[in-house]
Amino acid sequence: MKIGAYLKDNVYKFFVFFACYGINLLIFFAFKVERSVIFSSTLLYVVCFFLLLLIPYVRKKKFYTNLLSNIASLDKAYLVLETLNKPEFYEGELLYQALYEINKSMNENVRAMEEALKDFKEYIEMWIHEVKIPLSTLVLMSNNHKKQFDKRTKLQLKRLENYVDQVLYYARCENAEKDYFIKEVDLSQVIKNVGLKNMDEMLENKIDYIVEEVQYKVLTDSKWLEFLLGQIINNSIKYKRDVNHSYIKISVQEQDNKITLIIEDNGMGIKESDLKQVFDKSFTGENGRNVRSSTGMGLFIAKNMCEKLGHKIEIESVFQQYTRVFITFSKNKYYDVLK
After folding, report:
1. Distance between terminal CA atoms of the chain?
2. What pTM does this model have?
3. Cys-Cys crosslink for 294: which of 18, 105, 221, 288, Cβ 3.0 to 4.6 Å?
């Protein structure tokens, strides 16, 4: 609270003071009051006026300075009321009460929205589980009756299954800690499962699935990691480049007590200007203009999953050459078994 702004806001008081004192002087002169009395009276008027002006300033300054400082320092500014003491001046009490009512109303609305969102997510999850039953049946039928289902139909079923899984994991991502179980997982088995799940689509697109030495164990949730890798593999298939030999290569590096899984492809690559935004929600970039099925959600969900699981995900790419995705698993002593 700045003194200059405060005085400017109270400038009318100066006009009132000078007007009243001017009238008082006229009365003094009319009654021929001695100059010493006029001087003493003037001094008393001025002192009283500035005391009446500055005392409220001092009382208000602490409250408003604290209010503005707390708002600036809080990540969630709407919680500022919890950091304030109830002011001892009337205007401050009115403001405090107004903030209380606003905060109460906002909390009630947020609670109602959270309940509505929770109900909607529960419905989405229930619907997905219901729709997965006939979808899984169709996939099973396509595998058992290959003559009745051509490759294009099977691929569309696979894509549909992937999009349904994507919706399910996205709905669960916010409260992922309730759905995952961290334990030591065989990385080679996860990679094998992802390869088998995407085998038909890779064969259809003539993409070699190259797996180097990956006999490592990491701390993660196998189900979530499989889905995460599936999103990256699907991107590699989706953004395949028209070359003689297309591949998706998976390898592992171990360094400084960290294990890094590397997924590399020689597809379209990503323009340098797009690299900083590839993990943003719904961002498709330059490649999204050329591939109609781009949603911009795969890497966004992958990034969120890695953050929830405590992994680090990075990406490097050269446009029209290659793309490499790095997923780093740190060894966390929290999970060590004490002997």
Report:
1. 60
2. 0.63
3. 288
Sheet of 312-318: strand order equals: 207-211, 246-255, 258-265, 322-330, 312-318
What are the structure tokens assigned to 224, written together?
Answer: 């979530």
Strand-pair partners of 314: 326
pLDDT tens for residues 64-106? 888 888 888 888 887 888 888 888 888 888 888 888 888 888 8
Buried residues in 59-69 as b, exposed as e (16+ CB within 10 A):
ebeebeebbee
User: pLDDT tens for residues 285-295?
Assistant: 777 676 666 77
Helix (H) or strand (E) holding 218: strand 217-220
Side chain identity at residue 195, one-letter code: G
- Domains and their CATH numbers in the chain: 3-85 (no CATH), 183-335 (3.30.565.10)
Rounded distance between C-alpha atoms, residue 125 and residue 178, angstroms: 14
339 pLDDT exceeds 50?
no
Residue with tokens 């003194």, as numbered in its chain = 3
Question: How many other CB atoms are there within 10 angstroms of residue 221's CB atom?
Answer: 19
Label residue 236 exposed, middle or buried (CB < 10 Å: 0-12, 13-18, 19+).
Answer: buried
Among residues 36, 43, 6, which one has the least CA distance to residue 21? 43
Cα–Cα distance between 131 and 163 in angstroms, integer? Answer: 12
Helices (H) and strands (E) in the chain, counts: 10, 7
Tally of CA atoms within 13 A in the half-sphere of 287 that contains its CB: 30
Residue 180, both tokens: 């995952």
Pairing of strands 312-318, 322-330: antiparallel
CA-closest candidate to residue 202, choices 236, 229, 231, 232: 236
Q: Find the farthest-apart pair of alpha carbons in the chain and give their distance in angstroms, rounded.
A: 122
Q: Which two tokens stand for residue 186?
A: 């065989």
Question: Rounded distance, CA 35 to CA 185, Å?
Answer: 97
Q: Are 299 and 284 in contact (CB under 8 A)?
A: no
| Torsion on CA atoms 303, 305, 310, 314, rounded to nearest 10 | -20
SS3 328: strand
Provide the pairing of β-strand 246-255 with 217-220: unpaired
